[in-house]
Amino acid sequence: MCGRYAQALRPSQVRRQLQEENMIINEAPEDNSPDAPNTTHNFAPTNQGLVCRANSAHFVRQESSDDNGTAPELKTRQHYKLQTMKWGLIPSWTKHPPDYKFTMRTINCRSDSLAGSSGMWTSIKTHKRCIVIAQGFFEWLNRGTDKVPHYVKRKDGKLLCMAGLWDCTRYEAVGSPLPHSREELYTYTIVTTNSNPQLRFLHDRMPVILDPGSDALQMWLDLSKTVWEDDLQNILRPFNGKLEVYPVTREVGKVGKDSPMFVVPVNSWENKSNIANFFQVSSMKKEGSPTTTSKLSTEESSLKAAKTEPSQDPGPPMDSTKTANTVSHKRFAPNEPPRSPLPPSKKCKTSIQHSSSNQQTVSATQSSKLREKQTGLSKAGANKGHAKITSFFGKS
């Protein structure tokens, strides 16, 4: 099955590549015209795709030698046209546009269903064969409940020419001022066959892929082949060329989104969404950038210098006289060295030491005499108060 493919080339680019394969393209839509196809790396059903089909048979007169006496031969050479069509075949006998569910059932056509002489494909397969142009297609690998998208393309980089069928239906034009006017709607389907050994792990079906300019492709588009025979049926075989298949980002599963990264291997260097590449690039930038290295060296040198060099800012100036007076009124315990009233600081340590020579500290002897004097005054006050109380009670 083929339910999503990539086709981001403009009609002019496709035309040039097909002509390089010796295919004459008479007509093609303009790149920016209203009937130009959708160009996207995430092509979904109901999108407007680019299809190649036979245009007309041109007879080329080839003169033969007069010595033979034979009449000139007439040889035919097929000409082709590129046309925009909608993906999801709608048979010409339908009277009303079908719903989306019906269209999804006709995006693919099994090759074995064309072998019979009945079915909806009977009248289409004999007159309306085409090639669907793509760069590659997507298929999802089932791993239990998980589905991993894979991208498949030709290893030689050529266009992926998938065998298809087309049809044209006509509906009454809605809102047209002309009576009985009809609108033409061209649609197509992709023919699928059994997978080749290379893709069998991925899915049991794959599109029928034909080489551009090959005899098989020319036979498939030959307008003179109006009877379905074995030579046409035998074309619908698995591709025996070399394909390239690899997992891609899961974002491709979202219909309507488009990005060139959808066709890039998820583990490749070019895929910027790969988390491993992100960290690898980041580490290379850090290691290989001379600007970053020199900047880091400069910062490290600055940090080392800041640790080893003393601070050049001495802080606000201190009043040495005020400091000395404050310290002289503080009492210290015996044998205890005088302490600064300020907390220890590297910035003011020098100033405190400088002013310590002017301090007038109280000696231990002076402190002892002062305490004795205070004790004597306390006792005298207590005796004086006791005498007053005794005399008071004596008088009473």
From TrEMBL:
GO molecular function annotations of the record: lyase activity; peptidase activity; single-stranded DNA binding
PANTHER family with a match to the protein in the record: ABASIC SITE PROCESSING PROTEIN HMCES, DC12-RELATED
Name of the protein: Embryonic stem cell-specific 5-hydroxymethylcytosine-binding protein
Compositional bias of kind Pro residues: 335-344
Gene Ontology BP term (one): proteolysis
Top-rank lineage group of the source organism: Eukaryota
SUPFAM superfamilies recorded: BB1717-like (SSF143081)
UniProt-listed Pfam families: SRAP (PF02586)
Biased composition, class Polar residues, residue ranges: 350-368
Keywords noted in UniProt: Covalent protein-DNA linkage, DNA damage, DNA-binding, Hydrolase, Lyase, Protease
Gene: HMCES
Region (Disordered): 284-396
Family classification: Belongs to the SOS response-associated peptidase family.
